[in-house]
Q: What sequence folds into this?
């Protein structure tokens, strides 16, 4: 695939990004696309490897390795190298319903397992993927695909995130009538309100929703199942129901002083910021404004970094992100060998921006918040922390131990908690009577049936918080199982 010696001749090139200080002045996407010439060179780097681990889609040590939707990566890399863009798009769409999303916000486990990455930087798979789909829209190659025949079967999908949208797309193309219910005022789930605009502009999401609607999928917004429509009404109206509600129950921080004003869950901060931007360009004032404030983000993951980027754009006085783990190494360690996902240090967009504005990376490692202190009015004033040491016990399990003498006080007027998600919100699941395990819907991977007849579950609601590619994977697979349930056989892969 590609050019036989391409991986030796051409280096990996980083996608173009707008200047960090410039992009802090707006909410547009921070990255831009390659030129066709650069993309051809990047496609040429793809090796003719015997086993392309980039698209195997599995988990090693509970971490995703390769592409869970089994994208035909070497094939479309080769086609891009040869300038055959429309054919590359056809290959891409065989496995991925929404490349415009994954090409922007997926962490690209495919690149971690790229064969080139054994010794050199991986092929720029994610950038090529995004460029293929963007070119498809730009050239008018992507048009509504209207099913020629309808089966007469009706399916309700609860939740319009990537799992719900993928299952809706697949089932609609199989000829079923699909209605997607969403409790928010816009479809897209976390694609719309959970991922900031600078990573995924919302007209990209709206464009896909419009296309799905043109193809025959109905979207019912501002409708909460159990409140605005009952589960009995759904079961009477539809032949099958798929629960794709996500895993949006955020993990709380049990700590002294948590009740102080100015402490918020990260997703509440991100959601209100995006909604206010979309509704009024912040004119309505219905968002948490960190302008001129000292901000602390507790939690070292992507949601936390998005909080950092959002606070920077609002004009915060300072921003720090606390993480409990040590800083990652600059290269793979002996227990993190290829093709496992590379757990190595990187400077993501938010940290690059903070460094450009304040002169340093905002991340603080191996740190634990001991308590939160409020002022006389009950507003958060400061956080007290201590440094931690990660040690391996005799049983091989890692523990965190406080380091005496490392106590520190940090000023803060806003604190955002970004320590992950516990599972699926329970009221809807209780109404449907579906079994749960560890606060997730109990439905086997590959089967997706719950204990309730005709009710299926997929995505984060079933597996817990995960990657967008796993949501699309499960959305496609649950569609296959529902199609088989309704028709006795399936035409879906």
A:
């Amino acid at each position: 695939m590609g050019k036989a010696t391409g991986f030796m001749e051409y280096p990996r090139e980083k996608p173009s990004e707008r200047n960090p200080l410039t992009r802090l002045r707006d909410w547009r996407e921070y990255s831009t696309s390659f030129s066709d010439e650069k993309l051809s060179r990047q496609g040429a780097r793809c090796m003719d490897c015997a086993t392309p681990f980039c698209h195997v889609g599995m988990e090693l040590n509970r971490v995703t390795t390769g592409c869970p939707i089994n994208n035909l990566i070497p094939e479309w890399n080769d086609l891009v190298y040869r300038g055959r863009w429309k054919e590359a798009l056809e290959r891409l769409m065989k496995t991925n319903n929404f490349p415009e999303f994954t090409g922007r916000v997926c962490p690209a486990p495919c690149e971690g397992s790229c064969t080139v990455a054994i010794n050199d930087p991986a092929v720029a798979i994610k950038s090529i993927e995004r460029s293929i789909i963007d070119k498809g829209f730009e050239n008018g190659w992507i048009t509504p695909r209207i099913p020629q025949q309808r089966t007469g079967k009706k399916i309700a999908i609860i939740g319009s995130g990537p799992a719900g949208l993928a299952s809706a797309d697949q089932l609609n193309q199989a000829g079923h009538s699909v209605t997607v219910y969403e409790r928010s005022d816009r479809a897209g789930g976390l694609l719309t309100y959970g991922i900031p605009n600078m990573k995924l502009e919302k007209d990209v999401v709206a464009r896909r929703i419009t296309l799905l609607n043109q193809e025959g999928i109905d979207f019912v917004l501002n409708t909460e199942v159990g409140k605005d429509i009952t589960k009995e009404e759904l079961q009477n109206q539809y032949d099958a129901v798929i629960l794709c509600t996500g895993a949006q129950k955020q993990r709380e921080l049990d700590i002294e002083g948590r009740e102080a004003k100015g402490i918020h869950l990260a997703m509440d901060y991100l959601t209100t910021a995006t909604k206010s931007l979309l509704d009024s360009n912040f004119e309505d004032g219905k968002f948490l404004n960190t302008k001129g404030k000292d901000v602390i983000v507790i939690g070292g993951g992507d949601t936390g970094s998005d909080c950092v980027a959002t606070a920077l754009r609002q004009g915060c006085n300072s921003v720090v992100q606390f993480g409990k783990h040590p800083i990652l190494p600059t290269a793979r360690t002996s227990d993190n060998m290829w093709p496992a996902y590379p757990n190595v240090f990187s400077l993501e967009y938010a940290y690059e921006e903070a460094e450009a504005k304040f002169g340093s990376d905002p991340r603080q490692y191996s740190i634990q918040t001991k308590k939160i202190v409020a002022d006389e009015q009950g507003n958060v004033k400061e956080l007290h922390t201590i440094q931690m040491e990660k040690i391996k016990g005799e049983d091989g399990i890692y523990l965190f131990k406080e380091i005496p003498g490392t106590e520190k006080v940090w000023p803060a007027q806003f604190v955002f908690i970004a320590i992950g998600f516990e599972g699926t919100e329970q009221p809807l699941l209780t109404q449907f009577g579906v079994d749960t395990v560890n606060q997730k819907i109990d439905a086997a991977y590959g089967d997706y049936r719950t204990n309730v007849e005709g009710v299926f579950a997929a995505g984060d609601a079933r597996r817990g918080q995960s990657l967008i590619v796993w949501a699309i994977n499960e959305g496609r697979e649950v569609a296959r199982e529902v199609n088989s349930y309704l028709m006795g056989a399936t035409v879906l892969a």
Remarks:
- The mean pLDDT is 94.
